[in-house]
Amino acid sequence: MLLRENLGPADIDRLVDEENATASRLIFTDQAIFELEQEKVFAKAWLYIGHESEIPNEGDYVTRNMGTDSVILSRGEHGKAHVLLNSCSHRGTLLCTADAGSTKGFVCAYHGWVFGLDGSLKATADDMALYDGKVDFKTLDLKTVARADSYAGLIFATWDDAAPDLSDYLGDARWYLDLYHNRTPGGMEVLGAPHRWVVDTNWKAGAVNFGADGPHAVKVHGPITAATFGMPPQAVRESLLYSPAVSMGNGHNGILPLIPESLRDQVPAYTGYPPELIELYEQCLTPGQQELSQHLLGGVQTMFPNFSSVQAPAIFNPDGVPINLLAIRLWQPISATQMEIWNWFLVEKEASDEWKQASMLAGVRTFSAAGTFDQDDAEAWVGIAKGIAGQQGSQGEMNFQMTLAYRDKTIPDFPGPGKAYPSIYGEVTEFDVLLEWQKYMSA
């Protein structure tokens, strides 16, 4: 194991080899590196906190994590969202222990200190006059994030005063977020509380995979993909091999599997979408976004460092119609070799109740703790953790060298921003997640 105090800039630079497209296995196993990540990555980057639809009214709140810190996302006066460190400013007690609720303020269970929805201190255990004027109580408000903002209903926050605006941080990725989260006037809504489960592997395994790993799909998910999408594995492979992967900048990456050209005369446009909402998509999306959406087999993306989206049209009845699921998730770090996955399902606010129910069911069956795709992935990721845990196994390199063949091959007339590559098999976008990680770790 490395020692954190011995990790200098030169050591960090060697962990990811951009020229050779490899990464040290230690970044997925070493606890000292994990602890440095909390300072260098999770204390600096914009992190996803929650969805606007989870706290619609004043007093609503949910508890979330920013790295290894617990935070409270609350809706305060005038509709403002606040992100507060979930730690009493008196003795550090975890202030809010519920996952979600509605309240007029937060009361510490230890000494009864009371805080407002914005984190301001309202009362101490006893009369403040007992402090004889020797304490400036304004300094004892709850710690709040440096900045909080939202895009397309997605609320992000950062501890870093020097962080760029969220719009600049997301940059070109907003165009791709719109495909899933901003395609109707009403936007999306979350269907229930997050599903949470622990996987014995490093958090970056999920972020990189959704960044996204094309080659694993046929091998790991082949039979399930055929059953879920109603497409033979060869057609799925054709889609992955000849569909675009996109580097969106700032470590944000994703893939856009498209219906193969050979099957488009058999598959209607906007397959998996509610037919009654297509007119709304055409109002909200640009022509380029519409062009992609009409032929999407699915979509997977990671917003650096640990927020991902996945969309896919699932079909479980041969006589039924495909139903799009949309899941968002966080790869929450617990330790160097353990993460907790937080997973939500979303659907358009304008969709019918019947469609919302069907979309939720499609999601639970595929991308959830008991979902077919997540069971496949978890087994593979735990296999990685076990394979690189030993003295010999930890010394090797993670290989992303398909990147060498594709990093200079971009699609010149792609309708979206960023760098689009002609194959999801190219590994470029996966490796980009680690290159961004290295930038933060070296800063």
Structure characterization notes:
With 443 residues, the protein is an alpha+beta fold. It has two domains: 47-169, 3-layer Sandwich (Rieske Iron-sulfur Protein); 187-442, Naphthalene 1,2-dioxygenase Alpha Subunit, Chain A, domain 1, CATH 3.90.380.10. Helix content is 28%, strand content 25%. It contains 13 helices and 22 strands. The chain has helices at 9-15, 31-40, 166-170, 173-181, 203-209, 216-229, 233-241, 278-284, 287-294, 353-366, 372-387, 403-406, 428-442, and strands at 16-17, 22-24, 47-51, 60-66, 69-75, 81-85, 100-102, 106-107, 114-115, 121-123, 147-151, 154-158, 188-190, 195-199, 245-249, 252-255, 299-303, 307-314, 323-335, 338-348, 397-399, 419-421. The strands form five sheets. Strands 13, 14, 15, 16, 17, 18, 19, 20 and 22 form a nine-stranded antiparallel sheet that branches. The chain has a four-stranded antiparallel sheet with strand order 6-5-4-7, with no helix packed on it. A three-stranded antiparallel sheet has the order 1-2-21. α5 (203-209) packs across α13 (428-442) and α6 packs antiparallel against α11. The longest helix has 16 residues, at 372-387. It is globular, with a radius of gyration of 23 Å. The protein starts with 8 loop residues before the first helix and ends with a helix.
Describe the structure concisely.
The chain has 443 residues and is an alpha+beta fold. 28% of the residues lie in helices and 25% in strands. The longest helix is centred in the last third of the chain and has 16 residues, at 372-387.
